[in-house]
Amino acid sequence: MASTADFKPGMIIVFNGELFKIVSYQHSKMGRAGAVVRTKMKNLLNGRVLENTFRSGEKVDEARVEAHILQYLYSDGSHYYMMDPETFEQIPVPADVVGDDINYIRENDDVKVLMYQDKPIAIELPAAVELKIVYTEPGERGDTAKTNVKKPAKLETGLEVPVPLFVNEGDVIKVDTRDGQYLERVKR
User: What DSSP element (H or E) covers 186?
Assistant: First the structure.
């Protein structure tokens, strides 16, 4: 059991029988009334965001979530299969748990998988990943200026991102996993 005084962003709690990750919280006291903690929480199973107010000092169940680094092997459409590098056990992760994050994961990449009661509930991606461009229109001679003009580029995972004109097919770029935006070209 945890108290509302223990809340911090990223903490995972059990609320109304479901798992929620605390996105933000604010402690407030108004006049003679007791103090309250206003929270914004994200449901880990369906992704919905819920705003809730707890009384200060109220007890909540803190979920025991374990993070495992697993290696992504392959997909059969409904599940993504990850392997524990220590035990070589293959763990099927449902496609709805991975969601659109698969656009940032290549086969044989290491993935941080959150497990609750030995079931995968979510994956955590790094802030940025490096991916190779497999197709983009060639840049024209002289397109080296830093302008805001972009062209579409298809990455090795199938994701399409807008990139500057000077980026070419075969280049490796860094992509922000939060919004899917081009960050920079990686020198190799």
Answer: strand 182-186
Q: Which CATH number does the domain housing residue 82 bear?
A: 2.40.50.140
Q: Can you give the pTM of this predicted structure?
A: 0.76
In angstroms, rounded to a whole number, what is the distance separating the alpha carbons of residues 1 and 57? 11
For residues 161 and 175, what is the distance between their CA atoms, to the nearest angstrom? 8
Q: Mind listing the pLDDT tens digit of every residue in the chain (188 residues)?
A: 888 888 988 889 999 989 898 999 998 888 887 889 999 998 887 778 999 999 988 999 998 889 999 999 999 989 999 999 999 999 999 998 888 899 999 999 999 999 988 889 888 899 999 999 999 988 765 555 566 788 999 999 999 999 988 889 999 999 999 899 999 999 86
Q: What's the domain count of the chain?
A: 3
Per DSSP, 171 falls in state -
- Decide: 49 and 74 in contact? Cβ < 8 Å: no
The helix (run of H) or strand (run of E) holding residue 97 is helix 95-98
Structure tokens at 139: 């840049």
Q: Are residues 80 and 93 in the same domain?
A: yes
